[in-house]
Amino acid sequence: MTAAAAQPVPATRLVLADDHRMLRDSLRRALEEHGFDVVGEAADGQEAVRLALALRPDVVLMDVSMPVLDGVEATRQLHRVAPDAQVVMLTMHADGDVMARAIQAGAVGYLVKDCSMDEVVGAIRLAASGESVLSPGLASSMLAEMGKADRAGSQGPIISAREEEVLQLVADGLSLPEVATTLFISIKTVKNHLASIYSKLDARDRTQAVLRAVRMGIIRLD
To answer: Are residues 109 and 209 in the same domain?
Structure first.
């Protein structure tokens, strides 16, 4: 008997939401060349919500400034009514406050439109696999401002000292194997610490855990 043929991995399903048709057309062509399945396009936030409910995409690539309903509010509604659709913001707004509002609304990614197509592709793949990505540079400044604003009112750490060490190293940009090597522990132990951190901070992934820990004054960004 021959082994059954492996089933092909289905392409990531995308909805593109941007009020500039030429940009949508360009994105569609480029993303389809990278193997994504663009199942719908929206010219405003309200249409993006409607399409996401109807088409159940894996990821919505969402602009911020759109008519009828802006991208942040559309993300908030999507997070409530179609939480399986991961939202990545792709916008001209290189603004930490806008990024913070988008992340709080439920976006798992935030990219500025001067990024490369490889960065867009990488962000979509991370979002589809449950990870988060923030635009380089802008993320650090936004997180630092959040930390300054909230540190004074923090009620103190709610995670253990070891968990704080792990999360601080993650915030510093170390990979899980690097964290394990630095702390002389196994990668499995690092993952266990992160799972505990996610539970205590009510975070879904590393980026959200770092966001909340900085906001609470538990860790810092240099």
So the answer is: no
